[in-house]
């Protein structure tokens, strides 16, 4: 799929990985893709910023909702607003855990969860046929080659303490879903290559995950964003 991505769209994927590393997140989610998209100089990104989705505001929402460091993996799939509606304050839960077990407790737990997930998928002794392991490794190397780009380190407002995640950072299921949306957007417009406009449209089409809550927190409407992006590219064509 990534072979169809235009160079600037590939760079966005690379920047999303760098944002995830900077924030200490051991996964690449829709929120990291959104943060990378709003920071470019492409028309779709300009539209998003005109509607209040600036890199600074998006990053603040990501950190507010899932935090920094490996422990964010434990909170990243939870709906903060829905839990608040039934009286559960994630910030209070996080503070109580750190008060009882130390400030690095969530980080250690997040790393354990992340490491355990990877081992269960890749260790042949867990029942995975060696041929599937080799096939997965070949695909991983090919994907890494496609997404290699010379891009500066992505700066931002926040940076997790400690060592940054290294090696491959897996896409979350919802990030993969947003990329599938991206491909469908390009197909619907009969475009041969996938650009940042398709990435933006694929992200704002998400019904779950962090992107809808970020849009809501920043007062942005997904239908209005979609209409504005399509109108901007219609004017340019």
TrEMBL record:
Q: Which PROSITE patterns match?
A: CLP_R
Q: Which domain of life is it from?
A: Bacteria
Which keywords belong to this entry? Repeat
Q: Which residues form the Clp R domain?
A: 2-236
Q: What is this protein called?
A: Clp R domain-containing protein
Which organism does this sequence originate in?
A: Streptomyces coacervatus
């Amino acid at each position: 799929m990534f072979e169809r991505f235009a160079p600037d769209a590939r760079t966005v994927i690379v920047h999303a990985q760098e944002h995830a590393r900077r924030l200490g997140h051991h996964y690449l989610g829709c929120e990291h893709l959104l943060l990378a998209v709003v920071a470019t100089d492409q028309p779709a990104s300009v539209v998003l910023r005109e509607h209040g989705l600036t890199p600074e505001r998006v990053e603040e929402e990501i950190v507010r909702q899932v935090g920094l460091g490996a422990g964010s993996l434990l909170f990243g799939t939870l709906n903060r607003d829905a839990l608040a509606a039934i009286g559960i304050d994630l910030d209070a839960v996080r503070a109580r855990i750190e008060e009882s077990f130390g400030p690095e407790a969530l980080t250690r737990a997040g790393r354990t969860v992340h490491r355990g997930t990877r081992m269960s998928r890749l260790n042949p002794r867990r029942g995975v046929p060696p041929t599937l392991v080799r096939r997965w490794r070949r695909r991983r190397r090919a994907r890494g080659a496609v997404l290699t780009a010379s891009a500066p380190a992505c700066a931002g407002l926040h940076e997790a303490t400690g060592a940054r995640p290294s090696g491959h950072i897996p896409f979350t299921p919802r990030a993969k879903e947003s990329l599938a949306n991206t491909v469908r957007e390009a197909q619907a417009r009969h475009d041969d290559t996938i650009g940042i406009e398709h990435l933006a449209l694929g992200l704002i089409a998400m019904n779950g995950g962090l992107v809808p809550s970020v849009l809501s927190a920043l007062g942005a409407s997904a239908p209005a964003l979609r209409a504005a992006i399509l109108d901007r590219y219609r004017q340019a064509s």
